Amino acid sequence: MKTVRIGTGAGFSGDRIQPALRLAAEGNLDFLVFECLAERTIALAQLRRLDDPDGGYDPFLTERMTAVLPECSRSGVRIVTNMGAANPLAAGRETARIARELGLAVKVAVITGDDILAAIREGRAGPETTELHERLGDRVISANAYIGAFPIAAALDAGADIVITGRAADPALFMGPLIHSFGWQKQQSELLGRGVLAGHLLECGAQVSGGYFADPGVKDVPSLVDVGFPIGEVDETGGLVISKLDGTGGLVSPATVAEQLLYEVHDPARYYQPDVIADFSKVEIVQERENVIRLSGASGTEKTGMLKASVGYRDGFQGEGQISYAGPNAVGRATLAGEIVEARLRRQGGYRDLRIELIGVNSVLGAALSTGPEPYEVRLRCAARTDDRDLADRVGREVEALYLNGPAGGGGASASTRETVAIAPVLVPETTVEIDMQWVDAS
Question: What percent of the residues of the chain are helix, what percent strand, and what percent coil, each to the nearest 5?
């Protein structure tokens, strides 16, 4: 039975490059997929594009492509990635430039159409987005729909060695090669649901091969320093085996796979994707041998005809300041310092989401759930959001002022201000999206 081997080259934008390079060289792969977009990543990329019309693609694209293209070209490994982010065409041009510089003959296809900002502004994306745009107005800076796998498959059908997209659904990056390889059709929901399973397990990279899973003494993972990225071997019926390269660190086990299977899945029986509603409720996980896991039982039903879209909008500024206290009564002194800063900022007014917390004491779980022995050192963090940059700057200045205007022993103060981009998820009809595929000359 025909099988396809897909390796994960990245699970997020800043992921490590060396494991991907090793996969390209030793993995006997057909495809290497780089999944590099998180929920807010593309909105931040849109901000960069506003500053530089030739920017807005993944900031590590140049480094990543320069590293992996020679080995992928030598081994015949085809690349699929969403590193196009807010500017897929610019990402395609940069990839082509790198290929020319390296003397490599590759065909680069760019898929666009996920950017639906114009459709929202023109009222062509459904009532939900119309209401949102009326409320937010010019604060809206981006709107990107999660496109499906079939445009990726079409680019591979046309001979692309490298396919670059903007905002595609994460599993779709892996499904595209499967649809291309096996000729799966849009109405074959059961097969597509199995393809979603493969994509979902692979999309987060080392998260399924021991990274993030590890908890020393509870869930031990060997040689995490050299954790290997996962490989999915899929057959034409959607049968799936997850593994990693021999000699790499990490762990592929029923537990790592089960954790990733449930990751970000609200209802395992109805996991909504652009091409299908996947059903993971009857998935069986079987360990064939060490670091080799076989999965079966995924299915799917017909898609909804709606796509998730992320609308990014300017949401003011965040000011932050931090300072450390150490030694006897460190928590008491830091608590007093926080009370002082909070009172000074509230007296000024104009802030929202004012947050005063002690890192290592109550910053994650809050005071009600934070118990245990008092630490000997602690760091105070004060942060607030506001629509005024000067007010945001003042947060950090008030923390720095604690050196001489607060309790004893503060040190290592830092301050920062940044513009805040918020995300509003909406549903849009899939007819809103107009997919286009363009070739970028790399000769």
Answer: 35, 30, 35
Question: Is the CB of residue 317 less than 8 Å from the CB of residue 418?
Answer: yes
Q: What is the pLDDT of residues 264-304, one digit of tens each?
A: 999 999 999 999 999 999 999 999 999 999 999 999 999 99
**Is the entire prediction scored with pTM above 0.85?**
yes
Give Dmax over CA atoms of the chain in angstroms. 74
What b/e sequence results for 67-79 when a residue is b if at least 16 CB atoms lie within 10 Å of its CB, and e otherwise?
bbbbbbbebebbb
Extract the runs of DSSP E, i.e. beta strands, from 88-217: 108-112, 140-145, 162-164
Span 384-396, mean pLDDT? 98
* Alpha-carbon span 351 to 221, nearest angstrom: 44
Q: Which residues contact 43 (CB under 8 A, 6 or more apart)?
A: 141, 142, 310, 312, 421, 423
Q: pLDDT confidence of 442, banded at 50, 70, 90?
A: confident
Contact yes or no for 230/205 (Cβ under 8 A): yes
The CA-atom distances, in angstroms, between 108 and each of 52, 100, 155, 182 are 23, 12, 9, 22
Give the whole-angstrom CA distance, residue 3 versus residue 213: 28
d(CA 212, CA 127): 39
Per the structure block, which two tokens stand in for 393? 């700057």
Mean pLDDT, residues 423-429: 95
What phi-psi label fits residue 184: left (phi over 0), alpha (psi between -120 and 50 degrees) or beta? beta
Residue 374: pLDDT band with limits 50, 70, 90: confident
pLDDT tops 60 at residue 23: yes
What is the rounded average pLDDT for all residues in the chain? 95
User: Which residues is 427 bridged to in the sheet?
Assistant: 308
If DSSP codes are grouped into helix, strand and coil, which group holds residue 172?
A: helix
